[in-house]
Amino acid sequence: MNQLQKYTWLIDTMRRAGKISYRDLSDRWSQNKDFSDGHELHRATFNRWRDAIYEQFDIMIDCQKVGGYLYYIFTPEDIDEDKLKKWMIDSFAVGNVIGENLSLSCRCLDIPSHQLHLSAAACGYDMENHHHALCDAEACAAIALKLL
Is 36 exposed, middle or buried (0-12, 13-18, 19+ CB in 10 A)? Predict the structure, then answer.
């Protein structure tokens, strides 16, 4: 998994949770074996990711100190208002969800392996530019639509 996928996993997890403790976030990370290899999310790593997300996406992850140190996206409406940012995050989030559920794809699709271009082909999507961000995101969307 590349850094962009990790950042979008964090953004998407926090968007869905609203507010979440560091411990719950780390537990969700470690449960995602494809991303974490079962390891916890170290606090220093989490803080580096928070800084990188702010620098790269202008998304601030803040902490509510009253009531148990809950982390949240400071202005989630900014994501929804910036259509390009929302599309990019949502596209990678779909890819992450599919990646988290590779065993589901094998049960639902007749594919010889878990490679994105083969999974997409099994869903009727021809990937002309494999490893191109837009093409990969469209392939993930085609797979998600087929699985749903």
Answer: middle
Question: What 3-state class would DSSP assign to 70?
Answer: strand
pLDDT score for 125: 85
User: Element (H or E) spanning 83, and its range?
Assistant: helix 83-100
Half-sphere exposure of 69 (CA within 13 A, CB side): 6
Mean pLDDT score, 16-20: 90
Q: Is the pLDDT of residue 33 over 80?
A: no
Q: In what order do the strands lie in the sheet with 61-64?
A: 19-21, 70-73, 61-64
Stated pTM of the model: 0.63
Which has the higher per-residue pLDDT, 114 or 41? 41
Q: Provide the 3-class DSSP secondary structure of residue 64.
A: strand
- Cα→Cα distances 91→3, 95, 97, 119, 141, Å: 15, 6, 10, 16, 7
What are 82's two structure tokens?
Answer: 């910036």
Residue 1's alpha-carbon distances to 59, 66, 124, in angstroms, are 21, 34, 25
pLDDT tens sequence across 79-95:
888 888 888 888 877 77
SS3 at position 124? coil
Amino acid at 108: C
